[in-house]
């Protein structure tokens, strides 16, 4: 049997302390349910009594199938008994099965921050944990600033741990609160703690101020800790916390440990990562380890050629183990292997020795030199390829278009802008001309095209433009600069695709991207092309 690592998630408490993050009660309930379904052992819901959101969460804390919900707080105040401390009582009133109390383990912090004697601090730790246990709860002790405290005064830092251990703490968590420790230090110090308290259950809580929270957590595991605290996507105060999204696959797939997450559940880790981003209205990090869209993306021709022989050439694991997929990119660095692999992924059949593949590679390189970027616009690449291979359906032909932008000033000098677009196109054997207004020329053009096409292709009601980006490619040309427009479109099922256009005229570039977006959608929906 593999050794067991216990996962303690602090996203709802420590993660919410990050700048710009403000979970609602609904967010916290949804995230807690997802963490439980994924197989997390402990879910730290927040600090009861600290704010109305945390109080509301604990009042409605969901029934979990697997995880234990934990309430976080601090040891009793100096001069009070544990049973007569309002803050400690708030924590216990949350009625969670587990309680995690933070206490000082650095003598300098005790004397300067708490302003109590170092002996009183030890009593605060012992009394508080004993009281938690007396209430029938599982007690965890977070030894705050432990690594800095150990380096400053080893004896006292160990005394703090000993006080928690003798009080009966189920877990003693060693905290790198300032995030400044090195992996070699963590390994050495944890090894010493393990030798001094051989029968204690140890955990690790790392911050990411030197970008080493994951490395420090793994070093601690190698030295003997069996609980890891962290957050989803590493969110947290300052530079964040240890990233459980990176830690869990590494523990399971690289180090051979068992966790509460099954191999089948591990395939859903990307969905868990994206859930947090969605709740925070953030764009997922495409370069995130294991779960990012680019985690298994291959661009260099040499790499792709080797990958065609054996995926182990440039992949450390099978992407399917973490629910991800391999992505072969097409760019100016592409070779025939890139293009052939990408065509295969798109379901386009072509012989490996087909000369049109060589021509396609040449065209891609030429276009990328002009400013096209097909690795971020795979839909436009597919249309380009199908056009060269004679497989591109034609749903309409744009005969002409005009886009106007009118700005009117009212009596108070406020600007009122209105855009208007006129399109003339051929569809289903007839010529159609339409006019539409919009909040800008691109929006007006999009509305005019839809007005003309939807009667013939009603399925277009199911797609919409969800993002629009413009990049200046030749800034030295000032207002005459070449621009690249990338459009993200989505359908009613939430599927997204990206198209692009490049021109010195931003409206022309936008029109090209719109043409590709509409064409790709109709093609994928199996709509019959015009005759």
From TrEMBL:
This enzyme's EC code(s): 2.3.3.21
Keywords: Amino-acid biosynthesis, Branched-chain amino acid biosynthesis, Isoleucine biosynthesis, Transferase
UniProt KW Transferase keyword: yes
InterPro entries associated with the record: 2-isopropylmalate_synth_dimer, AIPM/Hcit_synth_CS, Aldolase_TIM, Citramal_synthase, LeuA/HCS_post-cat, LeuA_allosteric_dom_sf, PYR_CT
Domain Pyruvate carboxyltransferase: 5-267
NCBIfam families: citramal_synth
Family of this protein: Belongs to the alpha-IPM synthase/homocitrate synthase family.
Name the UniProt record assigns to this protein: Citramalate synthase
Species assigned in the record: Asticcacaulis currens
Gene assigned in the entry: cimA
